[in-house]
Amino acid sequence: MGPGDAVDRRVFHVKLPGHDAMARQADEHVVPTRVMLPRRVIDRPARQVGKRLLMALLVLATTVLIVWLDRDGYNDNADGKVDLLDAVYYATVTLSTTGYGDITPVRDGARLLNVVLVTPLRVIFLIILVGTTLEVLTERTREDFRLKRWRSNLRDHTVVVGFGTKGRSAIQTLRATGLAKEQIVIVDPASKVIDAANAEGYTGVVGDATRSDVLLRAELQKARQIIIATQRDDTAVLVALTARQLNRGAKIVAAVREEENAPLLRQSGADAVITSASAAGRLLGLSVLSPSAGTVMEDLIQQGSGLDLIERPVIKAEVGKSVRETDDLVVSVLRGHRLLGYDDPAASPLQLTDRVITIVRATAPPGAGPSLPHLQLPPHRS
Q1: Three-state secondary-structure class, residue 59
Q2: 62 Cβ partners below 8 Å, 6+ apart?
Q3: Residue 358 phi/psi, 5° resolution?
Q4: Residue, of 44 and 303, whose pLDDT is higher
Q5: pTM higher than 0.90 for the full model?
Q6: Tens digit of pLDDT for each residue in 122-136?
């Protein structure tokens, strides 16, 4: 089945929480699908128009002053004299290239000033007038070029579906490990949410992530990791089904509100499922039993500060040693598809193909820490 084929959407009995505000807005206001790249900070349209208007008035005033100071070098066919109103009139028709010929420079000095000063001012005036039109005409071309370059350069990136509290927290953790903003693409049905993501420097796709064409716009077929942080569990199931169809090799991590919906996410293609409500409840219970233990757990899940829980490959110096002989505090060993506890006799000795999950002290600043599993740091782009 290819990327363009219809998704096999099996009927699942998903327990749904109440609709939140964002879900209701997404249902009520259907937004056309589009990719929104981060923009450079520019002035608001009203301010840009105001600046151009002031520049045009300044050019006009300068031209009027030049003609008025050299008014004796001009001839008015009506009365032979050039007053202030005639100077304004001549400057206006000259800068707009109308040129009726009723007022003309007759002396050499006036003609020289027209060549040296008035003509460049006329060119500047025309550039100011057509500048807005040219900018509108070239904006679409420039955006199309940026979009094509973005698509061609994007590889092994991370797609985050949902930019709410869960999505933002996941992105903060990824950023703490050194993942660049250019390697993160956000998909959300609300245009205001994508505008907020653009303001923070992220590329966003406005649209329904359950549709394959929306995920294809996010280049999901080339992604290395997919994070599903939607507001509803049934939406997460459909997104997981669509994402797994488009990308068989990506790692998919999804969040659900209800624990009984977690098996459905795994059947839909998710590699890991986090139950947000249950996880928060367990942390609350642990904090009641032992506030210090709750603080340590919260510290472990906040990447980049205090203690970090990371996954790394076994180095050559550790091969053949037991778990307790390593320099780091190893809590689990990943051998193939088996996850072995530190106290499991099969975990030791360590093998070269093993990966270990360890607790380390986060001493590096954000952006320079150890890499998490399946993360690839992008090259620096100027």
Answers
A1: helix
A2: 121
A3: -125, 160
A4: 303
A5: no
A6: 888 877 777 666 666
